[in-house]
Amino acid sequence: MAVDVLTEIVIDRPCAEVAAYAGDPSHAPDWYVNIESVRWRTPAPVGPGSTMDFVARFLGWRLAYTYEVVELVPGERLVMRTAQGPFPMETTYTWQPVDSARTRMPLRNRGEPSGFGRVAAPVMAAAMRRANQKDLANLKRILES
Description:
Blueprint: E1 3-11, H1 15-22, H2 28-31, E2 35-40, E3 51-58, E4 61-73, E5 77-84, E6 89-94, E7 96-99, E8 102-111, H3 116-119, H4 121-144
Antiparallel strand pairs: 1-8, 2-3, 3-4, 4-5, 5-6, 6-8, 7-8
C-alpha cells in the first residue's frame, strides 16, 4: 500500500517569503516537529541535484536518510526524494499566492513502504498527517511573527 499524505495551510506572508524560508532545508529543524538535524552534502543554496542528510524521529524510531532535490521551480515548487534511507519517500512543497500578502502551501509526502512498513502504512499515513499539520502550523507561526 502506498502512503500519500497531502496537507496545506494558508500563511499570511507573501509567496516569495514563504518559499524562500520553507524551501531552504537548513530551516527544516526549526519548523518540522520530527526533524532533528539537516547536514548539507552539496553546497547551499538548494537547487536541482542538491543533497542533504536528515535525522528525524518518527513513531519512536530514529531515521537517517538522504534527500535529493529533483525539481525546483523558484517560488512555486520544490520536490525532494530520498536517495538513501529506510522508506522511499518523495516530499513536494508547493507555494501558491492567495493574494499579494497570503500564500497557500500544500505539503505532500508519498512513498512506497516495504517489509513491515507495508503492513504499518495506514498507521504511518495517519501519523504523517498529524505531524505535517503541526509542521505547517509551526511554519505559519514562525513566518507570521
